[in-house]
């Protein structure tokens, strides 16, 4: 079990950040370009020495500027996975993956065994003898994932690892990362994809101008962002529950949500339903011939923004943020809504995307 404790300052980049990631937890880092996301990963990996700070993993100190400690990158037991797979072009797939355990001192036979295991894990056992230039982009990225994990890192650092992959390949890679990120190591994920946050992360941290703008549980930050960047990426409804048939989710309160599986490997366990407030219609009474998803909501608050009014319901039964609907000012006036009113939210099934939940 490896907890990550991080605190670092880099004066030249106006960077000063501190946070912790528990063992088995995934922390997603969001923020605009230049906010300090890559700086964070580079300090953890030992690629950048901070002016001051301390980085510890599972009680092992990797960086401590006050004590003069700076463990070399190759001895940190940190796995770094980038958008570019960076495979060795002169080595075949198995040798690329075996390089990781070999670099940690494993013998040739043990390294080849570990490589075979991880290639099977990512579904590429039959491509072990291919060279990188014979792989598709998705295959190369899965080899990179296998190589990062074959090193048995205490901390896994993911820097936009799924960017550029097609939907089916990204879904498969996301399922793998979801499985391996909960096995006791701390994971830090940099992404611009809200879907990665919803399906992989336990908490989210927003960086801005080299500092922490906000940090908290995914649902809390997305429901009530306190930073401008957080506000830009927020604005979706999220319902968590368990699979209830081929295209449905059963929420904690028993509500049945119909949708469409957005991932090829959605499975039959915990799911998350995602849809935008703009896809929600609001009625005083349950309409005839309504869409398959109709839920009764008690209005918690109304927020007017020009010609748009956001209707927010009370928090969900599992404590998640209340569902939201965006309607026109004219509709809000006709409905004569007020906090405490009971209304119906309706959503068409094709507007609801179902994804495997992070936990």
From TrEMBL:
InterPro entries for the chain: AAA+_ATPase, ABC_transporter-like_ATP-bd, ABC_transporter-like_CS, Mo/tungstate-bd_C_term_dom, Molybdenum_import_ModC, Mop_domain, P-loop_NTPase, Transp-assoc_OB_typ1
PROSITE patterns for the chain: ABC_TRANSPORTER_1 (PS00211), ABC_TRANSPORTER_2 (PS50893), MOP (PS51866)
Domain of life according to the entry: Bacteria
Biological processes per GO annotation: molybdate ion transport
PANTHER family xrefs: ABC TRANSPORTER I FAMILY MEMBER 10, SULFATE_THIOSULFATE IMPORT ATP-BINDING PROTEIN CYSA
Keyword set, alphabetical order: ATP-binding, Cell membrane, Membrane, Molybdenum, Nucleotide-binding, Translocase, Transport
Keyword Cell inner membrane: no
Stretches assigned to the Mop domain: 288-356
Record GO terms (molecular function): ATP binding; ATP hydrolysis activity
Protein name: Molybdenum ABC transporter ATP-binding protein
Gene3D superfamilies on file: 2.40.50.100, P-loop containing nucleotide triphosphate hydrolases
Coiled coil residues, start to end: none
Domain ABC transporter, first and last residues per copy: 4-234
